[in-house]
Amino acid sequence: MIARDPAARSRWEIALCYPAFHAIMGYRGTNWLWKRGFRITARFLSQILRWLTGIEIHPGATIGKRFFIDHGMGVVIGETAEIGDDVTLYQGVTLGGTSPSVNSDGQRGLKRHPTLEDGVIVGSGAQILGPFIVRKNARVGGNAVVLSEVPEGATVVGIPAKIVRREKDDRFCAYGTPLGDLPDPVARALEELGREVQTLRNQVAALEADRAGTAAGADTPAKPRIVAASE
Asked: Where are stretches of biased composition, namely Low complexity (predicted)?
Protein backbone atom coordinates (compact mmCIF):
# COMPACT_ATOMS: atom_id res chain seq x y z
CA MET A 1 0.00 0.00 0.00
CA ILE A 2 2.84 2.39 0.80
CA ALA A 3 4.23 1.93 -2.72
CA ARG A 4 0.91 2.89 -4.32
CA ASP A 5 -0.37 5.59 -1.96
CA PRO A 6 1.84 8.62 -1.22
CA ALA A 7 -0.48 9.56 1.65
CA ALA A 8 0.53 6.42 3.54
CA ARG A 9 3.47 7.32 5.77
CA SER A 10 3.92 4.15 7.78
CA ARG A 11 2.66 0.63 8.31
CA TRP A 12 1.10 1.72 11.60
CA GLU A 13 -0.90 4.40 9.82
CA ILE A 14 -2.17 1.83 7.32
CA ALA A 15 -3.08 -0.65 10.05
CA LEU A 16 -4.96 1.94 12.08
CA CYS A 17 -6.44 4.32 9.52
CA TYR A 18 -7.06 2.47 6.25
CA PRO A 19 -10.51 0.84 5.96
CA ALA A 20 -9.35 -0.95 2.81
CA PHE A 21 -6.68 -2.72 4.84
CA HIS A 22 -9.29 -3.76 7.41
CA ALA A 23 -11.63 -4.99 4.65
CA ILE A 24 -8.93 -7.04 2.93
CA MET A 25 -7.68 -8.60 6.16
CA GLY A 26 -11.26 -9.36 7.12
CA TYR A 27 -11.85 -10.92 3.71
CA ARG A 28 -8.90 -13.28 4.23
CA GLY A 29 -10.63 -14.58 7.35
CA THR A 30 -14.12 -14.85 5.86
CA ASN A 31 -12.72 -16.55 2.75
CA TRP A 32 -11.01 -19.11 4.98
CA LEU A 33 -14.37 -19.83 6.62
CA TRP A 34 -16.17 -19.92 3.26
CA LYS A 35 -13.82 -22.54 1.83
CA ARG A 36 -14.36 -24.75 4.88
CA GLY A 37 -18.12 -24.71 4.65
CA PHE A 38 -18.93 -22.09 7.32
CA ARG A 39 -20.77 -20.00 4.78
CA ILE A 40 -23.44 -18.36 6.92
CA THR A 41 -20.77 -17.29 9.41
CA ALA A 42 -18.59 -15.99 6.59
CA ARG A 43 -21.45 -13.99 5.09
CA PHE A 44 -22.45 -12.58 8.46
CA LEU A 45 -18.91 -11.43 9.23
CA SER A 46 -18.53 -9.95 5.74
CA GLN A 47 -21.65 -7.87 6.35
CA ILE A 48 -20.17 -6.55 9.59
CA LEU A 49 -17.02 -5.62 7.68
CA ARG A 50 -19.16 -3.90 5.06
CA TRP A 51 -20.86 -1.86 7.77
CA LEU A 52 -17.53 -0.93 9.35
CA THR A 53 -15.55 -0.13 6.18
CA GLY A 54 -18.04 0.67 3.42
CA ILE A 55 -16.41 -2.05 1.30
CA GLU A 56 -18.33 -5.18 0.32
CA ILE A 57 -16.23 -8.22 -0.56
CA HIS A 58 -18.08 -11.49 -0.90
CA PRO A 59 -16.23 -14.23 1.01
CA GLY A 60 -16.47 -16.49 -2.03
CA ALA A 61 -14.39 -14.15 -4.21
CA THR A 62 -10.82 -15.09 -5.11
CA ILE A 63 -8.21 -12.39 -4.46
CA GLY A 64 -4.46 -12.60 -5.06
CA LYS A 65 -1.45 -11.03 -3.39
CA ARG A 66 -0.76 -7.33 -2.81
CA PHE A 67 -4.34 -6.33 -3.57
CA PHE A 68 -4.92 -2.63 -2.91
CA ILE A 69 -8.13 -0.61 -2.61
CA ASP A 70 -7.53 3.14 -2.43
CA HIS A 71 -10.11 5.08 -0.38
CA GLY A 72 -12.47 2.14 -0.76
CA MET A 73 -15.93 3.49 0.02
CA GLY A 74 -18.55 1.85 -2.17
CA VAL A 75 -16.41 -0.93 -3.62
CA VAL A 76 -18.40 -4.11 -4.36
CA ILE A 77 -16.74 -7.43 -5.28
CA GLY A 78 -19.08 -10.27 -6.20
CA GLU A 79 -19.02 -13.92 -5.25
CA THR A 80 -17.38 -15.36 -8.37
CA ALA A 81 -15.01 -12.46 -9.03
CA GLU A 82 -11.35 -13.41 -9.42
CA ILE A 83 -8.55 -10.91 -8.82
CA GLY A 84 -4.89 -11.54 -9.59
CA ASP A 85 -1.76 -10.15 -7.96
CA ASP A 86 -0.90 -6.43 -7.69
CA VAL A 87 -4.39 -5.26 -8.66
CA THR A 88 -5.56 -1.78 -7.64
CA LEU A 89 -9.16 -0.61 -7.28
CA TYR A 90 -10.38 2.86 -6.39
CA GLN A 91 -13.54 3.92 -4.60
CA GLY A 92 -16.94 3.07 -6.03
CA VAL A 93 -15.76 0.19 -8.24
CA THR A 94 -18.17 -2.69 -8.86
CA LEU A 95 -17.11 -6.14 -10.00
CA GLY A 96 -20.61 -7.39 -10.66
CA GLY A 97 -22.71 -9.86 -12.56
CA THR A 98 -25.33 -9.23 -15.21
CA SER A 99 -29.05 -9.96 -14.80
CA PRO A 100 -28.66 -11.56 -11.36
CA SER A 101 -32.43 -11.56 -10.82
CA VAL A 102 -33.13 -13.53 -14.00
CA ASN A 103 -33.29 -17.25 -13.24
CA SER A 104 -31.30 -16.93 -10.02
CA ASP A 105 -31.51 -20.65 -9.29
CA GLY A 106 -29.98 -21.47 -12.66
CA GLN A 107 -27.04 -19.15 -12.01
CA ARG A 108 -25.99 -20.59 -8.68
CA GLY A 109 -22.52 -22.06 -8.85
CA LEU A 110 -21.83 -20.49 -12.25
CA LYS A 111 -19.23 -17.85 -13.07
CA ARG A 112 -21.10 -14.52 -13.04
CA HIS A 113 -18.45 -11.93 -12.22
CA PRO A 114 -15.30 -10.69 -13.97
CA THR A 115 -11.72 -11.89 -13.68
CA LEU A 116 -8.99 -9.26 -13.28
CA GLU A 117 -5.54 -10.53 -14.13
CA ASP A 118 -2.27 -9.33 -12.57
CA GLY A 119 -1.50 -5.62 -12.51
CA VAL A 120 -4.94 -4.34 -13.51
CA ILE A 121 -5.91 -0.83 -12.33
CA VAL A 122 -9.57 0.20 -12.13
CA GLY A 123 -10.46 3.87 -11.67
CA SER A 124 -13.10 5.23 -9.31
CA GLY A 125 -16.73 4.55 -10.13
CA ALA A 126 -16.00 2.00 -12.85
CA GLN A 127 -18.41 -0.89 -13.33
CA ILE A 128 -17.08 -4.18 -14.69
CA LEU A 129 -20.07 -6.40 -15.28
CA GLY A 130 -20.09 -10.00 -16.46
CA PRO A 131 -18.03 -13.20 -16.54
CA PHE A 132 -15.19 -12.08 -18.81
CA ILE A 133 -11.49 -11.32 -18.36
CA VAL A 134 -9.71 -8.00 -17.97
CA ARG A 135 -6.27 -9.01 -19.14
CA LYS A 136 -2.92 -8.37 -17.50
CA ASN A 137 -1.88 -4.73 -16.91
CA ALA A 138 -5.07 -3.32 -18.42
CA ARG A 139 -6.36 0.09 -17.30
CA VAL A 140 -10.02 0.96 -16.75
CA GLY A 141 -10.76 4.68 -16.54
CA GLY A 142 -13.02 6.26 -13.94
CA ASN A 143 -16.79 5.74 -14.36
CA ALA A 144 -16.30 3.38 -17.30
CA VAL A 145 -18.84 0.61 -17.83
CA VAL A 146 -17.01 -2.47 -19.08
CA LEU A 147 -19.16 -5.18 -20.65
CA SER A 148 -16.63 -7.25 -22.60
CA GLU A 149 -13.06 -8.52 -22.42
CA VAL A 150 -10.22 -6.00 -22.22
CA PRO A 151 -6.95 -6.96 -23.98
CA GLU A 152 -3.62 -7.06 -22.18
CA GLY A 153 -2.14 -3.61 -21.58
CA ALA A 154 -5.14 -1.79 -23.07
CA THR A 155 -6.79 1.31 -21.61
CA VAL A 156 -10.58 1.59 -21.80
CA VAL A 157 -12.85 4.52 -20.98
CA GLY A 158 -16.46 5.54 -21.52
CA ILE A 159 -19.97 4.06 -21.43
CA PRO A 160 -19.85 1.45 -22.76
CA ALA A 161 -16.08 1.24 -22.42
CA LYS A 162 -14.00 1.60 -25.58
CA ILE A 163 -10.30 1.01 -26.11
CA VAL A 164 -8.40 4.30 -26.39
CA ARG A 165 -4.88 2.97 -26.00
CA ARG A 166 -3.27 -0.41 -26.59
CA GLU A 167 0.34 0.31 -25.65
CA LYS A 168 1.54 -1.46 -22.53
CA ASP A 169 2.72 0.91 -19.81
CA ASP A 170 4.54 -0.58 -16.82
CA ARG A 171 4.30 2.63 -14.81
CA PHE A 172 1.71 2.84 -12.07
CA CYS A 173 -1.32 4.61 -13.50
CA ALA A 174 -3.38 6.37 -10.82
CA TYR A 175 -7.14 6.03 -11.28
CA GLY A 176 -6.54 3.98 -14.42
CA THR A 177 -5.89 7.14 -16.44
CA PRO A 178 -2.58 7.22 -18.35
CA LEU A 179 -0.16 10.09 -18.02
CA GLY A 180 0.00 12.53 -20.92
CA ASP A 181 -2.59 13.05 -23.63
CA LEU A 182 -5.42 10.54 -23.69
CA PRO A 183 -7.44 10.44 -26.90
CA ASP A 184 -11.13 11.17 -26.51
CA PRO A 185 -13.07 8.45 -28.39
CA VAL A 186 -16.02 10.79 -29.01
CA ALA A 187 -13.78 13.58 -30.32
CA ARG A 188 -11.92 11.06 -32.46
CA ALA A 189 -15.20 9.79 -33.94
CA LEU A 190 -16.33 13.36 -34.68
CA GLU A 191 -13.03 14.14 -36.37
CA GLU A 192 -13.35 11.04 -38.54
CA LEU A 193 -16.93 12.00 -39.39
CA GLY A 194 -15.75 15.50 -40.32
CA ARG A 195 -13.12 14.06 -42.66
CA GLU A 196 -15.71 11.84 -44.33
CA VAL A 197 -18.08 14.79 -44.79
CA GLN A 198 -15.29 16.85 -46.38
CA THR A 199 -14.47 13.97 -48.73
CA LEU A 200 -18.11 13.75 -49.78
CA ARG A 201 -18.24 17.52 -50.34
CA ASN A 202 -15.19 17.34 -52.58
CA GLN A 203 -16.75 14.51 -54.57
CA VAL A 204 -20.04 16.40 -54.96
CA ALA A 205 -18.17 19.54 -56.07
CA ALA A 206 -16.25 17.53 -58.65
CA LEU A 207 -19.46 15.96 -59.98
CA GLU A 208 -21.18 19.35 -60.18
CA ALA A 209 -18.22 20.83 -62.03
CA ASP A 210 -18.20 17.91 -64.47
CA ARG A 211 -21.95 18.22 -64.97
CA ALA A 212 -21.67 21.96 -65.56
CA GLY A 213 -18.96 21.39 -68.15
CA THR A 214 -21.05 18.78 -69.93
CA ALA A 215 -24.10 21.05 -69.98
CA ALA A 216 -22.07 23.98 -71.34
CA GLY A 217 -20.78 21.80 -74.14
CA ALA A 218 -24.29 20.70 -75.06
CA ASP A 219 -25.62 24.29 -75.16
CA THR A 220 -22.86 25.58 -77.50
CA PRO A 221 -24.15 25.55 -81.13
CA ALA A 222 -22.13 23.45 -83.48
CA LYS A 223 -19.96 25.40 -85.90
CA PRO A 224 -21.11 25.11 -89.54
CA ARG A 225 -18.95 22.86 -91.62
CA ILE A 226 -17.21 24.71 -94.41
CA VAL A 227 -17.14 22.68 -97.54
CA ALA A 228 -14.35 23.36 -99.96
CA ALA A 229 -15.22 24.05 -103.60
CA SER A 230 -13.34 21.00 -104.68
CA GLU A 231 -15.81 18.88 -102.73
From this structure: 212-221
Taking the domains of the chain in order of start, what are their residue ranges?
11-178
Domain 11-178: give its CATH superfamily. Hexapeptide repeat proteins (2.160.10.10)
What local confidence, expressed as pLDDT, does residue 183 receive? Answer: 61
* C-alpha pair distances (Å), 156 with each of 24, 82, 180: 26, 19, 15
SS3 25: helix
Task: Work out the burial of residue 48: count CB atoms within 10 Å of its CB; fewer than 13 is exposed, 13-18 middle, 19 or more buried.
Answer: exposed
User: With b meaning 16 or more CB within 10 Å and e meaning fewer, what string describes 81-119?
Assistant: bbbbebbbbbbbbbbbbeeeeeeeeebeeeebbbbbbeb
- 81-120 confidence digits (pLDDT tens): 999 999 999 999 999 987 656 666 666 778 889 999 999 9
CB-based contacts of 53: which residues, under 8 Å, 6+ apart? 19, 20, 22, 23, 26, 72
